[in-house]
Amino acid sequence: MRKLLGGGALPPKAGFFHLFKGFLGGTLGILLLGYLSQLSGESWLMAPLGATCVLLFAVSASPLAQPRNVIGGHLLTAAIGIAALHLFGDALPVLAIAVGLSIFVMQYTRTVHPPAGANPVVIMLAGHDVGWHFLLTPVLAGSVALVVIASVLNNLGKANRWPHYWHGLGQTKE
User: Fold this and answer.
1) Which residues cross the membrane (predicted)?
2) Domain assignment of residue 110, yes or no
3) Does the pLDDT of residue 174 top 50, yes or no?
């Protein structure tokens, strides 16, 4: 039973600076996207971007929180969701296959970003109102804006260097 429940120790508590960076990053990121939505009349917000903030500002060293994963993962999965919706409709099997295909494509392109796995769900639940413009706003604009904020906050202090990688977009390793 202990093995099933995970018998290991908890990770160490985050220090105040790290906690504050998470708070500040999430607050500034969503606030900026909300204000840009109001100013432009276009939505810069979608639910998965809140989860993206958690990765970018709380566990920024994770491979899942690197810019290529954030931007590439969101773009690829949103494109899959939009294509599936417009080609095959919003039936449950289509939604399930779109999520599965999104995971496959993110793994293949080395752009795994868990919040992006929700994009086909968001798109299918929104229905046929979602067009290809959704790739620009909120997907691309929102993910790039969060990466820009993360680039500033995650590089505060001498020892911090973020991102850990970006290069090689599209290269795969067999």
Assistant:
1) 15-36, 43-65, 71-88, 93-110, 130-153
2) yes
3) no
